[in-house]
Structure formats: C-alpha cells, structure tokens
Design goal:
single chain, 527 residues, mainly alpha, Leucine-rich Repeat Variant, 3 domains, 69% helix, 0% strand, elongated
Length: 527
C-alpha cells in the first residue's frame, strides 16, 4: 500500500503506461537519426558486368563514359525493341538479356529510358513465356525497374506485373522463384499501399511455404528480406491476419545460422512490435522472444541492432509485456553491456530500452537496480555520446518519478546528482529539462523526510547551484523559468532579482512538493 501511494504521488497523476508511452517520441527520433539500416529496395547487379565496367572506368574518363553509355543505350534500345516484338523466341530472349544487362550493369541504370522504349509491357508478358531463360531475364528486368522510384515501380504495377510474379513463386525453377521473390520484395518496399496490394493478391501463403524449403542461403535471404518488407509500415500497419501468418515463418527464419537471414527476420519483428500493445502481443504469442533475447548477445551488429529495437519496442508496452522481456533471459545484463558499446547507436538504443523499463513498476525498477545498470547509466551521462546521454537521463529520471524513497537514496549514493548537474551545461534543452525534473524529484523526497540540507550541500559541492544560476539566463523560457523557481524554493537567497522581472506570472502551486512517503533508509541521504 505504501508503494502504491508513493507511485501515485511521484508520477504526478500519470500511470506507468502513460510515462512509458511518452517515450514513443524518442522511438521516432531514434529512427530519424540515421539512414535506415536495411534498404527497402535492392537492384540485382551482375557482378561480372560491374567488373567489366570498372575496367572501363580505369581507361575512360567519367564524362566520356557517360556519353558512351548514353550513345550505346540509344543505339541498343531500338534493336531491343525490334527483337522483343519480333515474335521469334530466340530474339525475344536476346532482347530481354540485353535490356537486363543495361539495367544491371550501369551505376545509374537508365530505367526511364527502358520504360520510354515501350518494351516493359512485353517483358511483363514474357513472365509467362514457356522459355525458362526468357522468363528469368524478364523477371530480372522487372526486379530492377521495381528497385527504382515509386513512379517507376507503379508503372510495372499498372502494366500487370504482380499476378504473374506471384504465380512464379510456384515455379519448379529455383532461380526463377528467387528472382520473383526479389521483384516482389522491391514492390512491397515501396510503401504500405503496394505492400497491402501484394497481401490481398495472395503473396503470403506461397512465401510462407518457400520459407520452409531447404533452399540456398541466398534464396532464404531474399525470402527473409521480402517478408521484412511485408511487415514494414505503420500508416497503416499490415493486416493482422497476414502478420500472424508471417510470424510463423519468422520464427523459423530466426532459428537459422545465417547472419543476413537472421538480421532481416529480426528487422521484420522490430517493425511488427512498433505500435500499440495489441501488435506487441501478437509477436509475444509467436514465442520468438527467448530467441530474440539470445540473439541480443550476438557479436554481429547487424543482428544486435534489430534485436535491440525489438526489445525496446516491447518494453514500451504494458507491464506484463515488459515483464515477459525480463523473464526471457539475462536481458538486463545484456543491456548493461550494450550501454558500454563503442557504437553510439547501440548505446543510445540500450539506454532507450532501459528508460522504458524504469517507467514501469516498482519490481521492474528493482530489477534495473539489482542488475547494476544505474552506475553504467551515470557513466553514460558523464562520458557517452550526446544521444545516449539523452536516453540515460530519461532512464534515471523515471526512477526518481516512479520509484521509492529507497530508490532515490540509492541513486544519490551512486552519484546521480553530479550526473544531472553535468547535463545543465549541455546544449540540448530537452535533456536539461529532464535532468531538472529528476533533481526536483530528489529534492522533494529529501525535503519531506527532513534531509534537504544534504541534497543542497551535494548540489553546491558539485557545482550544480552555479549551473542552475547560469540557467536563469538560458535562452529557453521554460528552462530559465524553471531554474528561477528552483533556486527560489531551495536557495532563495541566491535568486537573481533581474530574472524575476522577466518571468511570467507563477502559479501559487508551483513548487508544492509535499510527499506522503515512509521514512527513508537508516543511511538516509548520506552521499
């Protein structure tokens, strides 16, 4: 009962769900802060052709190479058009092969030139050719056109490419099936509209069947990548029934040993857990969490990153979903190790995941503390990348907001006050405000158990009071107003009188810091 009272007060009317959900803004920022780790579209490049082109580049200047390619394309396209409409099976094959080489050899493939030549509708017709080699070349052409812009991808859709490509998924020729999977993956990667169109046209059942096959690693890589594109997108999310079916395939794919297959399958799971609790629950029902927790210990960053994103997404869910992560294995210990990663993005996302856990229940906060993560988070604030520091301060402030007095005392004994004060000098306004919130929670707790003087002394000793005084002149109005109120409440003799005239009217309730808490531990706030 005492814990309930503490949480109810310290969370300022917000339950753990609301506290955790406000971290979704950080999730968006994490995605926008760098290029997408996994490309949505891929061009099928003929490496032998590229080697020949590289040799040409050594002998030829870039300008003359571009001019020669343009001239060759102009001359060749006319011949391709004549051959592909000749009605002769051999000439059709040669025409498709030549067009495919143009699209797979050049660094900037002339997709528009191929479209404008008028041969694409015929290429799509040839996806049904009785000649396997011609089918394969035609599918390769469609794949590389679909790797282009949305306009180019939509053109092949308008010409009827989808149905024959899905039909090719049932072909007896593995290379042809793989090329069709690749083409469909590019189409799915264009966005939710085309993704859902493929799902509605029946791509999922044959794709799931193919995922069970004993194909080559390359083949299964394309399967995993295409499935990941079918799981992408939130506006709208893919249909629930489709994702339920795809989850069965993903469960098998993440059990394999190939790094690329696992990586793409884990990215798919990260997309499926990015959203409301209902989406998260579907993934948990698929019994993939223990494997994700295991893969979090991988030495491959291409696997760690999507696994970390998936774990981070799940702990934005409800308390039971967060508990399922903590029960899946030594996840907290792994997160502690990843917090110290030399890769800034890994450290940042580990701190983000922990911040969602510390926004949860008392037992979840206990788990973070018992896992030894607090000293590591404090070290991140002092020495980490700016983006990781932003997430670490959230993790610690959440403990001061939703934890017990004992938790706050523990933070103080481990140096959280100097860490918060160190952030007062950073250039990121949001981090300053979050650190001030954390420090404010500490001061409230200390004041109401009669140990405010210890926190005041600690603030002065680490230079925090000087930093707060400087914040009274901060360009951000919220920060300088908050700093003024802060000093007025706890260090009223040090208020800058010039700042008072600049402040808007302050409510009488500002700084009402009463707490209904049990006595602190015997050690109190000795820090």
């Amino acid at each position: 009962m005492a814990e309930d009272r503490i949480r109810q007060f310290k969370n300022f009317g917000k339950d753990s769900q609301e506290l955790r959900r406000r971290r979704n803004d950080a999730a968006v920022e994490l995605r926008k802060s760098r290029k997408d780790e996994q490309l949505a579209k891929r061009r099928n490049i003929d490496m032998d052709e590229m080697k020949e082109l590289s040799k040409d580049c050594v002998r030829t200047s870039p300008t003359s190479l571009m001019e020669n390619n343009a001239q060759i394309s102009f001359i060749t396209l006319g011949k391709i058009h004549g051959d592909i409409f000749s009605g002769d099976a051999k000439q059709e094959f040669i025409a498709c092969q030549t067009a495919r080489k143009i699209l797979s050899r050049e660094r900037n493939p002339p997709i528009d030139s191929i479209i404008q030549s008028g041969i694409v509708p015929k290429c799509i017709q040839l996806l049904k050719s009785p000649n396997f080699d011609t089918q394969f070349e035609a599918a390769w052409i469609v794949t590389n056109i679909a790797s282009g812009s949305s306009v180019q991808t939509n053109y092949i859709i308008q010409q009827g490419a989808v149905d024959p490509l899905i039909e090719l998924l049932r072909s007896k020729h593995p290379h042809l099936v793989e090329q069709a999977v690749w083409a469909l993956g590019n189409i799915a990667g264009d966005g939710p509209r085309l993704r859902d169109m493929l799902i509605n046209k029946g791509i999922v059942p044959p794709l799931i069947s193919l995922s069970k096959s004993q194909g080559s690693p390359t083949f299964l890589r394309n399967i995993a990548w295409t499935i990941s594109n079918l799981c992408r997108g939130k506006q709208p999310s893919p249909p629930v029934e489709a994702t339920r079916q795809l989850l069965t395939a993903l469960g098998r794919l993440i059990s394999l040993d190939d790094v690329e297959i696992i990586s793409d399958a884990c990215w798919a799971l990260s997309y499926l857990t990015d959203g409301p609790n209902e989406k998260i629950e579907e993934v948990l029902k698929a019994n993939v969490l223990s494997r994700i927790a295991q893969l979090l210990n991988s030495t491959e960053y291409t696997i760690i990153t999507p696994c970390l994103r998936t774990i981070g997404n799940i702990v934005t869910g409800n308390d039971m979903q967060t508990d399922s992560v903590l029960a899946a294995g030594p996840v907290l210990q792994t997160l502690g190790r990843l917090l110290q990663s030399p890769k800034p993005n890994i450290s940042k996302e580990a701190a983000w995941a922990i911040s969602n856990i510390t926004a949860g229940t008392i037992s979840q906060i206990n788990a973070v503390i018992k896992g030894g993560l607090v000293p590591i988070l404090i070290n991140v604030i002092h020495n980490g990348d700016l983006r990781a520091r932003k997430e670490a301060v959230w993790a610690l402030t959440n403990i001061t907001s939703g934890g017990t007095v004992e938790h706050i005392v523990y933070l103080c004994q481990n140096g959280v006050i100097p860490a918060f004060c160190a952030l007062f000098k950073c250039k990121e306004s949001r981090s300053i405000m979050v650190a001030m919130d954390g420090l404010e929670n500490i001061l409230k707790g200390a004041a109401n158990v009669g140990e405010l003087d210890k926190i005041q002394e600690a603030l002065e000793e680490c230079g925090g009071l000087d930093a707060l005084e400087q914040l009274q002149h901060h360009e951000n109005e919220t920060i300088f107003s908050k700093a003024y109120c802060f000093i007025e409440k706890y260090f009223n003799e040090d208020v800058d009188p010039h700042v008072a005239d600049m402040l808007p009217a302050i409510s009488e309730n500002t700084g009402n810091f009463e707490l209904n808490v049990p006595p602190p531990p015997k050690a109190g706030f000795d820090i």
